[in-house]
Specification:
By secondary structure, the chain is mainly α. 65% of the residues lie in helices and 0% in strands. The N and C termini lie far apart (69 Å).
């Protein structure tokens, strides 16, 4: 009989999402945390990292009963437990680093938006992260000139970096760049 990690690998290889693999594993055990660790390991997430993401308290796991494995899997997905890092080429890493610094000029960022941007950057989904960043409001204590200038630079680099043949990403970046330019112009007035 295969262990939970191998069963999770088999499910993922067969096209299951991490949530689906988790749901299948968790339905057959009372160790919900162990099922999540198995899926993380099958995804290539180091066990120590997975353990940190999952925490060790029973409080997170005790509120779910039989039949709620899918709900818990979706919650784990939402908070980024199953996220895997994506290495980018040198220009992509420069763009990602600029986007990680940009929120410092906002004067604060809502936790949900911060989590969403972090997850997109971690997963290498730079066009999505950029489109999110340009929609965030600059607070009164922020530095709008620096924020929009940084995102203007990011937009230029991102447009040049995108692989050809991805019209969806190109369109997302083009729209975000146009929004960024409008915001920068409004700030300069």
């Amino acid at each position: 009989m295969n262990g939970p990690v191998e069963r999770a690998r088999e499910a993922l290889r067969s096209g299951a999402t991490p949530v689906e693999a988790y749901t299948e594993l968790a339905a057959g055990t009372r160790d919900l945390r162990g099922a999540a660790l198995a899926v993380c390991e099958a995804l290539g997430i180091p066990r120590a990292d997975a353990g940190t993401r999952l925490g060790d308290g029973d409080g997170r796991w005790g509120g779910f009963g039989p039949g709620e494995e899918s709900l818990l899997g979706e919650l784990l997905e939402t908070i980024g437990v199953f996220d895997t890092p994506v290495a980018l080429d040198e220009p992509g890493e420069r763009i990602r680093a600029l986007m990680r610094r940009a929120p410092g000029a906002l004067g604060g960022i809502a936790s949900g938006a911060a989590l969403g941007v972090h997850r997109k950057l971690y997963a290498g989904r730079l066009p999505e992260a950029y489109a999110t960043l340009v929609r965030l409001p600059v607070r009164e204590c922020g530095d709008p000139v620096r924020y929009w200038a940084t995102l203007g630079t990011v937009g230029e680099l991102l447009a040049a970096w995108l692989p050809p043949g991805d019209p969806e990403a190109a369109g997302r970046v083009r729209e975000a760049r146009e929004h960024c330019a409008r915001q920068a112009a409004a700030t300069a007035r």
